[in-house]
Design a protein that fits this description.
Layout: E1 2-5, E2 9-14, E3 30-38, E4 46-55, E5 63-74, E6 78-83, E7 100-105, E8 108-109, E9 114-115, H1 192-199, E10 203-207, E11 212-214, E12 221-228, E13 231-243, E14 251-256, E15 261-267, E16 275-287, E17 291-299, E18 304-306, E19 320-325
Antiparallel strand pairs: 1-2, 2-3, 3-6, 4-5, 4-7, 7-8, 7-9, 10-19, 11-18, 12-17, 13-16, 13-18, 13-19, 14-15, 14-17
Amino acid sequence: MKNLNIKTFSMIVFILFSSLVVFGAVPDKMNFQGRLLDANKNPKSGTFSMVFSIWDSETGGTQIWSETQTNVQVTNGMFSVQLGAVNGLTANVFSNDTRWLQIQIGSEVLSPRERLVTSPYSFRASAAESVTAGAITDSEVSDTANISWTKISKTGSSLADLATRDAGDLNSGTLPSARLNGNYFNNVKVSSAIYADSAALISTTSALSSDITMATAGTWYNGPSVTLAPGTYLVTAQATMGFLAATAHYSCARITDDTNHYASGQQRPVATNPAVGTIHLSAIVTLTTTTTIRLQGVSNTANCLMRAQTSYASGNTATQITAVKIM
């Protein structure tokens, strides 16, 4: 929206270029809306005569087109017209990319002129109506044009027998990936690049080597940790905690980098001997720098154990953290 200052009026104008879908001739009109104010910025109302003209420069220059609309209704400052309603707009008006709209109300010319951009130049599309049959050559056809096979003359060209060919005739060269659409069966060779991606999969695991006694209630204790390079990871963890006695308590675990806490959970085992339970956690973690991600535990009861090995099991797998790089 632009404010045009003149002696008697000021005009706030904005141009609407309708998205017209027309099958046939290109329309020779475009919508124009504006707001007309007096010198004190008060909206005007009434019927006004307005002259609209298009020029090839912001000041001076040559007038390309004009029309006079004698009965423009203005209500509370607002008005709407169709440029070209009196004198139709043609492709020649927009044959150059430098065009300016000038508005005259009565005897007063509003200033500055308003530059026309983008949408009005769709009138230039009417130039395509002048193309005669057979006049389009290779240089006018886009590389991405989707032209029906029935519209192509094969006579006397290398395309003469192309309609009878299929993929079985391709015995050399590389088929672009964009052509590999649909379902494929039997002898489909998978690119080695796919295996390369799989080989790049990074997984690292750290497990607690021996029990940790969480001597102070309410204090977080560090469990196993993994140090990860920048990237995005699926981090999973399990924390086995409790007492080798019938001790009522609850405990919590979390995945953290000491600043950000990515996942947490809580358990309250039944007070039997042993009163032990396992918390399972998972989180998607995105890192921009090399970072240590650790598993931590806490209990509301002093001397709770973070277990390295569960009862009646072998191997230190009770409390561990695993990270798989996914991006």
